[in-house]
Write a structure and sequence with these properties.
Layout: E1 3-12, E2 31-39, E3 44-49, H1 67-82, H2 90-100, H3 105-123, H4 127-130, E4 138-140, E5 142-144, H5 150-162, E6 167-171, H6 176-190, E7 195-199, H7 207-218, E8 225-226, H8 232-241, E9 246-248, H9 255-263, E10 269-272, H10 280-292, E11 296-299, H11 306-318, E12 357-358, E13 361-363, H12 376-382
Parallel strand pairs: 5-6, 6-7, 7-8, 8-9, 9-10, 10-11
Antiparallel strand pairs: 1-2, 2-3, 4-13, 12-13
Helix pairs in contact: 1-2, 1-3, 2-3, 5-6, 6-7, 7-8, 9-10
Bound molecules: magnesium ion (MG).
Magnesium ion is lined by residues 199, 201, 226-227, 249, 271, 300.
């Protein structure tokens, strides 16, 4: 099977509500680049890049892409470089992409996902099998609240839990007093069984503020504290000053970031993405190195549509140390049954079938490739 070409799209899905966090209070989620690659055997593969200009890491080492940069680099550099390749030759494909474009992992991830989808469909095997087999059938849902007024947070968390969510993720890092009070109110409203995790998105101004807030939140039993401050040195100081595990997200893009976080004792765990390292192939390399250090992860992302979310679920189920509750959406299709709030950020999608959600677990769509059927009418409807 050989890649013969492909097509890029920029698609915007309708939102259930706005979703913001400390480092992004302006740009709306849900405007992503999609790609379809075609092969000489008539099999196509789909990929997605939820690129955002405001998303990056500390020190300017990792920085924002946009749907437009993904389309430009994809059409003019990356896709031409891998045309003629077998999509199963994924190491060669990454080598070719890296030879023509430095960085820009989200653009590369979109094509990497499309290659895995096409290769799996060609072989009649799911992507999880190409990644080494699956350890679980789905991912524990963490329902993400975003930066909302406190009353709305509590009300939405109650609904999400009533619909089956067992973990709530709270966006913090905006106002220290609010961040402590909100976690207290959530614990009171949700009871002792529900897990609560917090994500500061580098929002605290000082190490002392981050330690003070996290220490106060620990009174209400939080499972972990994600990226409270920017930079690995500051993260290491917070990690030394609190008792809950500190998770790296903005600080953990590549395999080398994992090595540095470990050497600096800056994080116990990290947020594994398909996109930050540059695709499923690179994500597995990163996760395998983390495992050597005893580090574990969730599978995070940027509220992917059904294509990218399927890639997240294949990665999460095929990666032994990616077991933490994760913000993988419950992909929802307009008019279909399913939860209305728990794991739901968009009210429609570009795939034909909604994803399963049972006992607090988002279920892996199983089938050849990513296991999803793309609805090209929906792409036409929501494309620019
Ligand atoms: Mg995060």
């Amino acid at each position: 099977m050989r890649i013969t070409g492909g097509e890029f799209f920029i698609v915007t899905l309708p939102l259930r509500r706005q979703h913001t966090w400390a480092s992004n209070t302006r740009v709306s989620i849900g405007r992503h680049a999609l790609v379809r690659i075609d092969t000489d055997e008539g099999v196509s593969g789909w990929g997605e890049a939820p690129a955002m200009a405001t998303w990056g890491g500390p020190g300017g080492v990792h920085y924002g892409e946009t749907p437009e940069t993904v389309v430009h680099l994809g059409e003019d550099y990356l896709l031409p470089a891998i045309t003629g390749c077998d999509p199963l030759d994924i190491a060669v494909i990454h080598d070719r992409m890296d030879a023509v474009v430095k960085g820009n992992p989200y653009a590369k991830a979109a094509l990497d996902i499309a290659c895995y989808d096409a290769a799996g469909k060609g072989l009649g095997r799911p992507v999880w099998a190409l990644l080494g087999g699956k350890f679980r059938d789905g991912v524990q849902l963490a329902h993400s609240l975003g930066l909302l007024p406190m009353d709305e947070c509590v009300a939405e968390a109650r609904t999400a839990v009533a619909e089956g969510a067992r973990t709530i993720k709270v966006k913090t890092g905006h106002d220290a007093q609010r961040d402590v009070e909100l976690v207290g109110r959530l614990r009171e409203a949700l009871g002792p069984e529900i897990r609560i995790r917090v994500d500061g998105n580098e929002g605290y101004r000082t190490v002392h503020e981050a330690i003070a807030v996290t220490t106060a939140q620990q009174e209400f039993d939080i499972m972990l504290c994600e990226q409270p401050v920017a930079g690995d040195a500051a993260m290491a100081k917070v990690a030394a000053g609190v008792s809950v595990p500190v998770m790296a997200d903005e600080s953990a893009w590549t395999a080398l970031d994992i090595v540095r976080l470990h050497e600096m004792n800056a994080a116990a765990c990290y947020s594994l993405y398909v996109t930050k390292p540059g695709g499923l192939y690179r994500a597995r390399q990163q996760a395998d190195i983390a495992a050597q250090y005893g580090m574990y992860s969730d599978v995070g992302g940027s509220i992917e549509m059904g294509i990218g979310n399927a890639a997240n679920l294949h990665l999460a189920t095929a990666t032994r140390n990616a077991w933490l509750p994760s913000v993988c959406p419950v992909t929802t299709v307009d008019g279909a049954a399913g939860p209305s709030v728990a794991g739901v950020y968009y009210v429609d999608d570009v795939v034909s079938e909604p994803f399963g959600f049972r006992d607090g677990v988002v279920l892996l769509p199983d089938g050849p490739g990513l296991g999803v059927e793309v609805d090209v009418d929906k792409i036409r409807k929501y494309a620019e």
